[in-house]
Amino acid sequence: MSSSSHLSLQQLGWRPFFQQQINLDEYDTCLFCRVVEQHRSKIVVESDQGQFDIRPSNNADPICVGDWLLINKTTKIIERSLERQSVFQRKSPGSKVDTQLIAANIDHLIIVSSLNQDFNLSRIERYIAVAKDAMVDPIVVLTKADLCENNEEVTNKIHQVQDLDAMMVTLAVNALAYSDLEQLTPYCKLGQTIAFVGSSGVGKSTIVNTLLQTESMKTGSIREDDDKGRHTTTHRALKSLPQGGLLMDTPGIRELQLTECETGVNETFSEIVALAKQCRFSDCSHQTEPGCAVQRSLANGELDPRRFNNFQKLIKEQAFNSATLAERKEKDRNFGKLINAVQNESRLRKKASNDIVVKFQIHF
Ligand SMILES: Nc1nc2c(ncn2[C@@H]2O[C@H](COP(=O)(O)OP(=O)(O)OP(=O)(O)O)[C@@H](O)[C@H]2O)c(=O)[nH]1
Ligand SMILES: [Zn+2]
Which of 161, 236, 237, 258 could form a disulfide with 170 if both were Cys (CB 3.0 to 4.6 A apart)? Predict the structure, then answer.
């Protein structure tokens, strides 16, 4: 993605969803730009006219990589950001703001798991929930198929993943073989933006390297950036793929958490949510209550206990994260009140001492 060969808007992911948000005036006066890099004090945007740096004003709406911005052609000032089709965000540790935007307008989240020891349905489910909550389409890629003893093992694991969500694309591959990864090309073609998640060592960089068929993303090199806990200036968050699409590669994607994503969890476990509606009590905890449809389904073997346990775990986890968010908001509010009270008190004191001075002056 060099500035000498400009990408078209379509290559940058422009589509009717964004086009529809533009008015006639903006057509004439603005450049449509995608945020491709984000630094502490500047962002790098790219349009069909090439790329350039922008310094967003302090009171601008929060912006993240992947966003579409309207930038005035002459002043180069951000006019506004466009509504997002999808967005990943997370709880920001030790920060004043509650949630931190990670990346916007990703089309497919490629959940990578290896077929060996790392294979864990509950972990895959967690990522599915995060993807669904962000309005991103999840795809599961099971790596190291070449290291499996037999095909039966591979087929069996594919079926287990497909049982989580019959509509979800699930592939088994040798991440080092380009012929295996060709199955992924429909999802990384022109205009599409993809991102990868998965545990360390499952083969994310290997897949990307094989897709790029270059050494540009040396296996392990990304980890160096992660250790420092920040982006390096040379790190580009949106990379062009030879297949035509864009790869979103921002460290935050690897730390996706469940925060206030009840919707995503409920969507991922929709059959349990549907069962829960049939329980006798609307506030059923699905433990020991009579007339519990969930317990009935577990007892007759229709519902997998692993899946039910993971559902409960993820609901609790996101509720816990959301509660700590709410608590922090409450603390911030209380702190704000405290500051106000202190300021009022000091204003009163000042006023009182001024009054004394005034009295004093009048008196003498
Ligand atoms: N045989 C085989 N080896 C694989 C496959 N996928 C990954 N590997 C190997 O597994 C190791 C780890 O792969 P990486 O691509 O570095 O894993 P990663 O997910 O990027 O890991 P992090 O960078 O730590 O997040 C490398 O030595 C790869 O060559 C596969 O499908 N088959
Ligand atoms: Zn119940």
Answer: 161
Nearest protein Cα to ligand 1, atom 14: 203
Q: What is the DSSP letter of 345?
A: H
| 203 among annotated binding-site residues | yes
Is the per-residue pLDDT at 120 higher than 60? yes
pLDDT for residue 357 is more than 50: no
For ligand 1, atom 8: residue with the closest CA: 203
CA distances (Å), 143 to each of 114, 123, 182, in order?
Answer: 4, 15, 14
Averaged pLDDT, 152-163 = 94
Model pTM score: 0.77
Q: For strand 30-38 and strand 68-72, is the pairing parallel, antiparallel, or unpaired?
A: antiparallel
| 144 is an annotated ligand-binding site residue | yes
CATH code of the region 1-83: 2.30.30.140
Q: Which CATH architecture has domain 101-255?
A: 3-Layer(aba) Sandwich (3.40)
Centre of ligand 1 to C-alpha 2, Å, is: 28
Mean pLDDT of the chain: 82
Could you tell me the distance, in angstroms and rounded to a whole number, from the CA of residue 295 to the centre of ligand 2? 6
Report how far ligand 1's centroid is from the alpha carbon of 107 (Å): 24
Report, as an integer, the average pLDDT of 145-159.
93
> Of the residues 142, 206, 255, which should be mutated to test ligand 1's pocket, given the most ligand atoms within 8 Å of the CB?
206
pLDDT above 90 as % of the chain: 56
CA 221 → CA 148, 216, 313, distances in Å? 27, 10, 34
Average pLDDT of 79-105?
A: 81
Ordered by start, the domain boundaries in the chain are: 1-83, 101-255
Predicted pLDDT of residue 347: 59
pLDDT band at residue 216, thresholds of 50, 70 and 90?
A: very low
- Which sign does the torsion angle of CA 265, 267, 272, 276 carry? positive
CB 67 within 8 A of CB 35: yes
How many angstroms separate the Cα of 45 from the Cα of each of 35, 56, 79, 188, 252?
Answer: 4, 11, 14, 21, 19
